[in-house]
Amino acid sequence: MSDVTSGAREAPILEVIDATHRFGEVVALDNVTLRARRGEFLTLLGESGSGKTTLLRIMAGLERPTQVGRISIDGEDVTHIPANKRNCTTVFQHYALFPHMSVGQNIEYGLRLRGQSKGERRKNAERALDLTRLTGLYDRRVHQLSGGQRQRVALARAIVTEPAILLLDEPLGALDEKLRVDMQVELKDLHERLGITFIYVTHSQEEALTMSDRIILMQHGEIVQEGPPTDLFDRPLNQFVADFMGVENLLEGALESVSDGRAKVRIGAHMLAGIWSGGAAPPAGSRVCVAVRAERVRLSNTGAHEGQGDGINRLPCRSGATIYKGKYVDRILDTDIGVLKARIWDRDADISDLASLWWREDECAVTQMVAAEDG
């Protein structure tokens, strides 16, 4: 492969440089820079009001930022180019299909605006239907479709124009749980078959983890952490990220030391250890957060004094409530340093004569203590 070809593939297909946007006194985006790689599935994740949808609308040209350095798509500067001239298409949560048109007519709408012939429109619409697993529904009326089928029609209408980037604004939000899970698989499969860049907005960490090559987590108009799903899941940059990504056990303590990527933390009379994931380490004595997922907590009928110094954190505990969740059981456990949760997937692994709990050092993260409301 030539250096020129290699360089073209490595160049980002989308760049948003130094974007700021305000709604009156509210800062929706605060000097955000984002780059998307060619062919990746990139997810913008965050709670309501985090700025993710505003950022997507700026990419699409549906919102003009208060201030921006540059927006480029596929090497073209589109900063001042309107939405209908940008080489990207947006799929919304509410399908925005034309009820008086057939499925095929809905899909062909963008092609008709581009002046494509009737025969070419039909051929391309049928291909888009095949890609979205709607073969044979060209003449079906929109009101005859299920929710999942309508969402597929919206996807077919978006991809039929062959955009460089597909922007998806919480497209599964209106679907029921089972259908939403099924559509996650469909979207991931569609992305792999098309090979184009997907930029997906959601508030669901489950959706982000399931589908993404890379996740950008936003809070209060800023990017808090970005990286592959495993990074945000196992190595949160601060307490907010850990909490948002669903870590059940968050323990505040005083940092004792950080060495070779491992941190020791004193909480009450106990010394705990884990992988440091909080960026530049603060001074000893700083307040930090030990983040342990419930499924990493094991139960034992032996005392907590056994096995100290073996790379395992152990605490004496007393059993609290047991919460049945169908696929698993959550055990609520009282310890000297607070209430912890253990998730038990295998009923045979449950223990009645409980004495202690434990988890491995490399199965927990120690990170910056940043409260969610402080941003």
How would you describe this structure to a colleague?
- The protein has 375 residues and is an alpha+beta fold.
- It folds into 2 domains: 9-234, P-loop containing nucleotide triphosphate hydrolases (Rossmann fold); 239-374, OB fold (Dihydrolipoamide Acetyltransferase, E2P).
- Helix content is 25%, strand content 35%.
- It is built from 9 helices and 20 strands.
- It has helices spanning 3-10, 52-60, 103-113, 118-131, 147-159, 177-194, 205-211, 229-234, 239-244; strands at residues 14-23, 26-36, 41-45, 70-73, 76-77, 88-92, 165-169, 197-202, 214-219, 222-227, 249-259, 262-267, 270-276, 287-292, 298-300, 312-324, 329-335, 338-344, 356-360, 364-368.
- Helix 6 (177-194) links the parallel strand 7 (165-169) and strand 8 (197-202).
